[in-house]
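Sample intake sheet
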Amino acid sequence: MKSDKINNNVIDKIDTALTANPTNPVTDDQELALFAAEKRRFIDITRLVSDWIWETDPKFVLSYVSLRVMDVLGFHPYSLKGRSLNSLGKFVQEDGEPSSLNWSKPFRDELFVIVDNDAQPRHFLMSGIPVFDPQSGQFMGVRGTAEDVTQRRRTEQLLHQSEFRYRTLYRKSPVMAYSTDKAGLVISASDHLLANLGYGEDEFIGQQACKFMTSGFVELFDAAENPTITHDGQSYDVDCQFRKKDGTIIDVLISTINDEDEHEGVVQTLNVVLDVTERKHYEAVLLRQANYDFLTGLPNRGLAMDRLSQAFGRAHRGQKSVALLFLDLDKFKKVNDTFGHAVGDQLLCEVGDRIHTCIRQCDTVARMGGDEFLVILPDLDSGTLSEVVARKILRAFEQPFILDRREMVVTTSIGMAIYPTDESEPEQLLRSADAAMYRAKAGGRNNFRFYAGDKIDLGYDDHLTMENCLRRALDRDEFFLEYQPVVDASDKKITGFETLLRWESPELGLVYPDQFIAMAEETGL
């Protein structure tokens, strides 16, 4: 308790008693009783308050010390009387340097260090007022209070040390982190973050954090402002991109944690930054490998079917059509066998590029595997555009391919099916387009066919079954010859015989040459 908290009337009356001439005794009983009461009140107050009260003479020798000093310093008040204030301790500044006071004026909360009875330094905030003789104005000494702040300063020191250790760990740790205030201004940043981004401390701190981001700052702002996203010390992860000083963009994952005050809400936000650029790169590589053909860079079967399903959904909602073109190169095996797989691979890449020149930007070219390609034509008002595209592709294939410094003409057979005219499911539409492609092959190659929907179509399963049976037919002695006479029309005489190869398969029955000869040539059988 400070001296100004003591009842002024009490101080005035005690002051009168202390400065009165003791040779002139007070004779008024009421005045004596009042004085005694005020003295008891004063003593009670000095025992109750946490501060101890002191008074000096003009030479700053202690003339009064309250009993409270025993609890605080362990000294009996009488042992301190007669000691100068300077012998008891010293006034210092916050940095420990000596402090000089103007004793002729009141002072408040001056730091005073005393060594207690256990030889331990104690810190007090001293407040005092000078006392002057009412008649002569002569300086009589100083009265004051001493508030023990030793524990408070120790706590503050420990807190300061803890904060220093935290800041040192924060700054010097190999973690990228920064803090922002309520306005989004950067108030601190780890050295590791600054080094990775290439900014100096003066370039980064004090700036809006979003200044250094190309994406994700809106989500970060929402996380800082919305207590339902981050509360009770929980973190919230946001994908962002940082722009380094040299202009490089890096992908980062920021875990943001709000430091909240009971009254002020969010005081600051701690953001821990993890560089995920390399991880994002590998994720993109894996995603591409999972969805794109390694050789040609075209969408693979999985991605093509996904896009076909999406096209079905849009077509259904917009009452549109979707055309699917199934392309198979004619006699591609001969190219591989004659010129090698490197030339064959080059041909497949150039085929994909050439098909791209024949379609719209919204269309998809995909490689199914081998020498098979798909073309998806979404959002059609009718299926007639598919025929236009098929003819463009066939005309594009009329131009020779330049492969290993050789000109080579390669043709393709195209099968087409239309949603919703032919099928209502993506896989079914694929099978129908595949069946139509085999009809184009059977029709002499280098042409296109629409799905007919009848049993003449040889679908993929039937084609595979026939190929497997054909591979075993010679060993099982299933081929036989038929002879057909050649008759001269003028005299109706037989001039010779044609030899016709026939195949009697136990599984397929009688198979005619127009069905299995082309397959035998295509598969190299």
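Comment: The first helix runs from residue 8 to 19. DSSP finds 17 helices and 22 strands in the chain.
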